[in-house]
Amino acid sequence: MADGLEIVGYDGEGYKRLVDGPKWTLAALHYAVRFDPANFEKLERHLLTDEVFVLLTGEATLLIGENAERVQMEPLKYYNVKAGVWHHIFVTPGTRVLIAENSDTSGENTEYRYGMGRQATPGTNNK
Prior knowledge:
The chain is an all-beta fold. The protein has a domain at 14-40 and 52-104: Sandwich (Jelly Rolls). The chain has strands spanning 14-20, 24-30, 42-46, 51-57, 60-64, 69-72, 78-81, 87-91, 96-102, 110-114, 119-120. A hairpin with a 4-residue loop joins strand 5 (60-64) and strand 6. The protein starts with 13 loop residues before the first strand and ends in a 7-residue tail after the last strand.
C-alpha cells in the first residue's frame, strides 16, 4: 500500500465511524433493526454541528424537523442536516449511507426525543 493512504471497508450492520480526521469523521450507516421504521424509537439533534448524509445504494428516508417530515433520499445527493434540527434515518436491507460530521459529535452534545414526545438531555444516550 502507498505511504500515507488508508483504505477502510465495512460490511457490518448499523453505524460505524470509519475515518477520523482532526476535525471531522466519515462513517458508514448500513441497515440495522434500529433503522427500520417498524422499530422507530427516537429523533436526535446535534447541538454543535451539521451532519451530512449521502445515499450510496439502496433506499433511505430522512425524518426531519419537529414534525418528522419524511424526505426520500436520492443516490449521490448530499443531505446536510443543520445543527439543532431533529432527525432520524430509515433504511432498507442492503442500503449503504455515507455520513460526514464533526469528530466531536457525541452523546454529550446531542439531544434525543423519544417516541416523538419525551426529550432526553445531552449525554444520556449514544447513536
